[in-house]
Amino acid sequence: MRYRLLLGWIVAGTAATVGYYLLPRDGVAASMLYNAIGFCSALMIVAGVRRYRPRRPAMWYLFAAGQMSAVIGDLIWSYYVFVLHQEPYPSFADVWYLAAYPPLVLGLLQFVRSRTRSDMETLVDAGMVAAGLGLVFWIFVLQPTATTASASVLEKVISIAYPAADAVLLALLTRLFIGAGARTPSARLLGAGALLLFAADATFSVLSLHSGSDGYELSAGWLLSYVFWGAAALHPSMAAEGPPAPAADAAVSRGSVVLTAVCSLLAPAMLFVPQAGASLTGRFAIATVGIVLCVLAFVRTHGLIRKVQRKTHQLEHLATHDDLTGTANRRHFENTLRRIPLHDSPQVVFLGLTGFKSVNDELGRHVGDEVLGQLAARIRGAAPTPASVARMGGDEFAVLLPGHTDGAADQVAARLAEVMREPVLAGSNELLVGAAIGIGDSDGATGPAEVLRRAEAAMYAAKDTGEPYRRWSPALDDRAGEQARLGAEIRAALDGGQFRVVYQPIVAAPDGRMAAAEALVRWEHPERGPISPAYFIPVAERNGLIVELGAWVLRTACEQMVSWRNDTAAAAPGYLSVNVSARQLARPGFPQTVADILTATGLPPGCLAVEVTETAVFGGGQAVQALHQLRALGVRIALDDFGTGHSSLGLLRTVPVDILKVDKSFVDDIAGAGEHRVIAEALIHVCEGLGLTAVAEGVETAEQADVLYGLGYRLLQGYHFGRPVAAADLDRLRPAESAVTA
Ligand code: C2E
Ligand code: MG
Ligand code: MG
After folding, report:
1. N or C, where is the chain less crowded by C-beta within 10 Å?
2. CA–CA gap between residue 54 and residue 56 (Å, rounded)
3. Of all atoms in ligand 1, which is nearest to the CA of residue 611?
4. Cα of 639 to ligand 3 centre, how many Å?
5. Which CATH class is domain 497-733?
């Protein structure tokens, strides 16, 4: 056990101290026991150093040397008393006694230096306490000792030397305790040892002035001081280094306030002590210390005020700024906006990052944070006044433009759109994080909050349409309101069974056989009649209901496919294509949902294809992973509306694809000799080269069908072959004649 020696020493030392008083007073035995304790203390200090190997052993050796010096003094004194039978004063014993102080003080000085804080406040506090206590010590000990008539100069010097050494000890102790140096058990034990030594010395000085005490009663103080000193060296924390970290409330720690206040009052209090007020030096000392204390108190208060001001400032900054980007936060932005009168026509530009979420999800938060930092800096750089930029939420920023015309605000928005288009370099990644930008003005606005709301609504509209920026208009609110209503109605429609699935044939050229079918959802609204999926699917995507709606479509379509295959296996479409939206695909559980539906309906996976748009998989991440999982199930992947996205061909390298659905826009003009025909032709070559199945969408005329067939397309879909119809009507659509005329 690591504390065995320590506990043993404390128990033995305390027992020996008690034993000292049990032995006959002034006997040889008592005297030898006294010296033995002192000697053992020095020994324990050396043992502690050996055991714990502190980085700076010198101070401990100084302590040991000090103790040894005192022991030698005592031995010499014993020799005087027991052998020579005389009690001289001063004597050689005093030389050794006094010689004990310099090493003790030097050691303590080193100790204090290495363990205490030395900031301004601590030093001033220590100064105040030392000045106050020093004055008391001066009045009660030093001054009376000095003025007591003594025979010789030597005697006088030696008499003063003891309390003077104690005064230094007192100053060091003050510094140790005020500087929070006495935090470790070892430091506390050492402090206690030094405090006992000081107390016993001081009491002895006072007592011997008035009664000529021989210090027998005080021996316990000195002996226990030895015990503590040795114990300090035996505690493992003796090897701990460095000053303690300043406490958060160091400036106003209650203990130090009370202590410094009490010590400041010591100077005036001394005026009530008759012996102090009587002499000129006494009054002079009180006045001097009083002035010093006042000055220190002033320095202390001044420092405190400065610190409080600094803290207040920091807190204010923390409360109003975003620590990640250093820009203002939403609260600060709203407060600033509120202070601008509406007739100054403030405008707000609101930026919502696009694709930031996937950066965060895929590359981790630290990359996300770096991207945000860089983009915030760009926005500040492009804003007319950097200070007007605020981070409004996770990936949203706003710029406040007081007193801007519409034109000027649009210009700011355009500049912001431009800087946001540049790729962001984060780590080893070059990332494209765009932004949708909305502008809100105060024309006819009910208040500042309305300006911000308009900018935000405009940003969402810009996000939907893909415009670089958009200015708010009343129509936007109508649309937003109507979309919110619609969103709520989708819920009711799901529960009320208002959705249906229709099927559109995908035919094989040239024979016109139905090769596949695409499932398309329909909403028959009880009041508004049919609503286009192109309109309500984005609404369902935004409010999350697409997940439930999509799963319903998928299950319905799969059940239908199974039923076709059971009825007339030969006449059933080869596979069924089901549309899956971006948000559905990005849900981690999506592949499992598909697997569950396949199991539940018993549809072979090869009979199902999922249609996804390029934009749904452009961001990579979870969506692409989901496609791999679907592929692994045996489900086919079709890229819908191919050619309208922004990195169509590049995607084919990174995303698992089986079917390309060439967008209707290329088919529309295919009969002309324009570039669309060239693209359609190039795309069929790509498909052939990569082993993909090509499907041409939106074929409306026989002529288009012929041209497409001529280019090499073998799967065609469009009104020319059949509109989307209810399941029961699908076979009746099958054309009797061949799909193409040529
Ligand atoms: P899409 O997947 O590209 O579907 C093709 C759309 O073009 C369908 O519109 C279809 O009726 C229409 N169409 C087919 N042939 C022709 C033609 O020859 N001429 C013209 N003008 N149009 C033709 P619909 O059913 O209104 O669907 C629009 C979009 O809504 C779909 O585009 C698809 O992206 C989405 N959608 C439809 N049903 C679902 C669904 O169940 N889930 C999801 N997530 N999206 C769906
Ligand atoms: Mg489709
Ligand atoms: Mg399409």
Report:
1. N
2. 5
3. 2
4. 9
5. alpha beta
